[in-house]
């Protein structure tokens, strides 16, 4: 499919009019002689977080094009918009869908239009996965052992395939751009105050034994992030919690590619298991899941590491989902509070179970 760059970038749900939708539909016709007419556009839901996410019903007279759309715009929350503007998270996602999604071996949404223009904003329009019977995930929901196995298998294939491409495919070089380096620099600059604020807000949700290690991690974040990026680079999602998945016929698809980058694949696995599984279930199945992940990777010649080394990297990477949930809480307004706290509790227990901050103390 050829992705559509439409000329009208919008900034507000009120701008999603019949004329706007008609522009997209007309360009999707690809020169067909019969014009598809848009009769009505109805906004059915608006959710404001790191982006503004809108669900639309688009009434048109075509039986092939989707009639349920999902639109992402820059956040209407000033706080969230300020946090996401400098690292250009939504423009990164637009670029991912325009340039990379077609050869990523994962299920992703069907994109109808994607455009980003510096100084004007970004608009991403996709077919709502619900129209084809898929079920969107929810941040904070609990996944089953079967679901976890399906996600880990998909991540293993994804990381294995993309590991070779990051070495040889120039289309991925923008992922190491100055904007990504700016994001890392901002993360290091604000790590300590955000960690302190988040831990204070978390209260009893975080075991007190983690506090000193978490602050030490924040103070050394730049060095630790570099350390956590030294093994077998591949393309990673970097925000793989249950709210960024969708499910069709028991298989996962992956949403929200704003944080996509080059990094260690095991980091995605750590993030997923820390945020998506109840602690007791995670303890029961995580070694089996890691063996499954390792088994798939070991079939590809670029993966030479042993299982014990992979396990150690998994344990170290568990510090990041904890940090991500603490920082999300500190900033506020990026996610539903109950979902944020639930995933924070899970990731805190995972980090404590594996002494993640202790492993990173000497880095």
Keywords:
Aminoglycoside 3'-phosphotransferase, Chain: A, domain 2, 363 residues, Phosphorylase Kinase, domain 1, five-stranded antiparallel β-sheet, alpha+beta, 14 helices
Secondary structure category: alpha+beta
Number of strands: 10
Overall 3D shape: globular
How much of the residues is beta strand, in percent? 15-25%
Mean pLDDT: 92
Largest sheet: spatial strand order: 1-2-3-5-4
Distance between the termini: 45 Å
Largest beta-sheet details: 5 strands, antiparallel
Number of domains: 2
Supply the number of helical segments: 14
The whole-angstrom Rg is 21 Å
CATH topology tier name of the largest domain: Aminoglycoside 3'-phosphotransferase, Chain: A, domain 2
For the record, the CATH architecture of the largest domain stands as Alpha-Beta Complex
Task: Describe the overall structure.
The protein is α+β, with helices and mostly antiparallel strands. The strands form three sheets. The chain has a five-stranded antiparallel sheet. A three-stranded antiparallel sheet has the order 6-8-9. It has helices at residues 18-28, 78-85, 89-99, 145-168, 178-189, 191-202, 211-219, 221-227, 265-276, 279-297, 307-317, 319-331, 337-353, 356-359, and strands spanning 38-48, 51-60, 68-74, 111-117, 121-127, 135-136, 233-236, 245-248, 251-254, 261-264. Helices cover 47% and strands 17% of the residues. A hairpin with a 2-residue loop joins strand 1 (38-48) and strand 2 (51-60). The longest helix is centred in the middle third of the chain and has 24 residues, at 145-168. Helix 4 runs antiparallel to helix 9 (265-276), helix 9 crosses helix 11 (307-317) and helix 9 crosses helix 13. The mean pLDDT is 92. The protein folds into two domains: 13-132, Phosphorylase Kinase, domain 1; 135-359, Alpha-Beta Complex (Aminoglycoside 3'-phosphotransferase, Chain: A, domain 2). It is globular.
